[in-house]
Amino acid sequence: MQQDRKSCPQSKYHFDSGIRNSESPPSLRSMTVVPKLWSEMSEKNKKSLKETIMNHLANEVYCHLGISPVHGIGVFAVRPIPKGTNPLRSRVKHREISFTHAELKSLPRGVRKQIKMFCYYDDDEVLVSTMGLNTMDFAVYLNHSKTPNIRFNKDGSCEVLRNIKTGEELMMDYDHSFDGVHIFE
Fold first, then answer.
1. In Å, how far are 69, 145, 160 from 183, measured between CA atoms?
2. Sequence-separated (6 or more) residues with CB below 8 Å from residue 20
3. Three-state SS for 38?
4. Is the separation of the CB atoms in 87 and 160 below 8 Å?
5. Which of 12, 64, 70, 144 has the greatest CB tally within 10 Å of its CB?
6. pLDDT range class, residue 38, cuts 50, 70, 90
7. Are 90 and 115 in contact (CB under 8 A)?
8. DSSP state of 116
9. How many degrees, rounded to 5, is the angle at CA 32 between CA 47 and CA 124?
10. What's this model's pTM, rounded to 2 decimal places?
11. What tens digit of pLDDT does each residue of 43-64 get?
12. How far is CA 117 from CA 5, 36, 101, in A?
């Protein structure tokens, strides 16, 4: 099975594998918030951050990427995931920046291919994460199934539809989650 198109949970956007037009996009570096170096943090802030990360690791990490028997790479449970959980919740709050296809045309071909594979787009615009493409959201690796165990909600969050066992692949129905019809060859 090969994915032909996915649509964005928020709307009309989709991705598959290539770009159409272009110009150079603005640098993301000027918009990136760089955290303080560990060595520059106070002991109180270090302790607080360590507690926050330990809580995240203990209570919010549910998935890993692996080879899918369905298609390419998939998302798999590293531990049981209770029904109603958002297993892909991230500590990183990111948004997408809208580019026209023309703005991206001058990028190297390999970069355009990555954008087409991993960013949402329609005929008018391409949404690129403010995190850039060196950090990825596991959600782009969710494979399609007509018997899904996870879905996107209208607010863009994910929700497990039933209890999921350790090692089980998380699958979503692209048509239901993205309000579209998806064709697979």
1. 19, 12, 24
2. 101, 105
3. helix
4. yes
5. 144
6. confident
7. no
8. H
9. 135
10. 0.66
11. 998 899 889 888 988 999 999 9
12. 10, 32, 14
Q: How confident is the model at residue 76 (pLDDT cuts 50, 70, 90)?
A: very high
Q: Is the pLDDT of residue 34 over 50?
A: no
Question: What would the pLDDT profile of 174-184 be if each residue is shown by its tens digit?
Answer: 777 666 665 55
Report the distance separating Cα 87 and Cα 107, nearest Å.
34
The whole-angstrom separation of Cα 148 and Cα 174 is: 9
Give me the residues paired with residue 67 across strands. Answer: 73
Q: Return d(Cα 39, Cα 163) in angstroms, integer.
A: 42
Could you tell me how many residues make up the chain?
A: 185
CA 171 to chain centre: 14
Task: Give, in order, the Cα–Cα distances in Å from 185 to each of 2, 73, 142, 179.
Answer: 6, 17, 17, 20
Q: Could you give the CA distance from residue 151 to residue 84 in angstroms, rounded to a whole number?
A: 10
> What's the confidence (pLDDT) of residue 180?
60
Helix, strand and coil content of the chain, in percent to the nearest 5, comes to 25, 20, 55
d(CA 163, CA 82): 5
Q: Is the pLDDT of residue 143 over 60?
A: yes
- Round to whole Å and give the CA distance between 100 and 117: 16
